[in-house]
Amino acid sequence: MITLPQEIDAIQSLMQPGEQIYLVGGAVRDALLTKPNQDLDFVCADDPRLMGRKLAEKLSGAFYVLDDERNACRVISKNAQGRRLVFDFTQLRGQTLQDDLLERDFTINAIAVDLRKPDEIIDPLNGTKDLLGKCLRPCKSTAFRDDPLRIIRAIRYSIKYGFEIEQTTIYLMNHVNDALALVSKERKRDELFKIFEIENPRDVFELFVKYDLLKHVCLNSIPDIYRAISRLSFFTKMSTYLKNEDSSESIIDLKINLFASIFSDQRIFLQARFDQVNQSERSIHALDNLITLLWDLDEVEGVKISEGLALSKEEQEQISLSLRYKCCILDHFASHKTPDRKFIYRYFQSLGIAGVDLAILSLIEAAITSSSEWIEDQWKDLLLFCQRLIVTWFEHPDHVNPKLFLTGRDLMFEFDIPQGPRIGQLIDGLREEQAVGLIQNRTQALAWVDEQIQKGFIKG
User: 228-231: long-range contacts (C-beta < 8 A, 24 or more apart)?
Assistant: First the structure.
């Protein structure tokens, strides 16, 4: 007996008599493991675009054609809890469902359910047995040659689900390792970001080192991969604390324990930030995972990797900013134990909300430094330093981007200043003076501008 995702009810209600649609792959696998899955894959005997369009209309979702050759399409909607749902429809490969399942990657993903008989499992390759035995096997001996990306996917599955990769499977993987160079950077990027979403990504990257796969995901230029992996591991511990409300009781790591204590009131804000997805539908948490690996690189090298992974302009910008300003907090902390309002203002003017992420990433860099360099008191002071930055962003927006008492039009009218760059310079100066609390009303703002003019700020 299998409990299928409730979301398939909508498709069953739209099916015509005799219509053949099968739920396949990860959704069936995860249902057998009683794990949730919001990405549902279906194969159809007839043109899947017909069902895709009907489902999009029924759910008020978005419809996309993914592959004209296979009539593949996607519907994106949301469930009752507001969580994103993805329905992918493709046409049956071969003459029968068994032909289609044989073309899939691993036996654990070659299990299907006929939506007309949802209580029956179709499992010609014994994937259920492999699932229960925690064994990862390809559907056929040519699986990795047919799609080399399955090498990376095999490692992800083995770590995510605790599966053992058979020696025969490892041989097949190693035999076509170099063929990964032929896989598009977009597909490798998507697989990499799925790795960043699992509970223990560090184990994946240790296997990447073992099987010489870093070069295939543009990460072979990292100077000290084991230090980078340590950074990634510490970020995972932080993320685990933020996700699990009761986790602080079982925390053994003293540094994480102190982080949990000091940041308890900011937990919700930080978790919301990391859960946020960008326009490419990739999470900030996953992107920050990548940045922990790139931390030892300079900005130019970081951009090169960003382009090699076909990241969006938005993601490339965050990586660039993070690597450009990565020393900002730790350098300032070395001479100032508490950040003043001017530092905080300028910090967020340069970084925007990425400054929240950089504060956490700076903590991680300090945390993996040897204990002889970072004693407990220093760690606590740095936590408080970064906490003040984060609290300011979330709770005191007027310290970051205050509503100005004067506009550019006011400056032109009150002081007869012609339109031009000087107006912008004065506005920037006013904004900073307000942000740090030196100007608190319109009268003070007018007096400050007058003072700048008297000092010769405005000439001619």
Answer: 228/292, 228/293, 228/294, 228/295, 228/296, 229/202, 229/205, 229/293, 230/202, 230/368, 231/292, 231/293, 231/295, 231/364, 231/365, 231/368
Q: What is the pTM of this model?
A: 0.89
Positions of the chain with pLDDT under 50 = 248-249, 459-460
Buried b (16+ CB within 10 A) or exposed e, 94-122: eeebeebbbebbbbbbbbbbebeeeeebb
What is the CB-side half-sphere exposure of residue 362 using CA atoms within 13 A? 28
Distance, CA of 362 to CA of 215 (rounded, Å): 26
In a domain, 401, yes or no: no
Shared domain for 42 and 125, answered yes or no, is yes
Nearest to 157 by CA among 173, 143, 137: 137
Q: Which string of DSSP letters, residue by residue, matches 236-275?
A: HHHHHHHH-TTGGGG---HHHHHHHHHTGGGHHHHHHHHH
Structure-token match 């009810």, residue found:
9
Residues 233 and 215 in one domain: no
Q: Is residue 418 packed enough to be buried (19+ CB in 10 Å), middle (13-18) or exposed (0-12)? A: exposed
| Structure confidence by residue, pLDDT tens digits, 5-16 | 888 899 999 999
Long-range interactions of 183-186: CB distance < 8 A, separation 24+ = 183/147, 183/148, 183/149, 183/216, 185/218, 185/308, 185/309, 185/310, 186/310
pLDDT score of 4: 83
The whole domain housing 170 covers 135-220
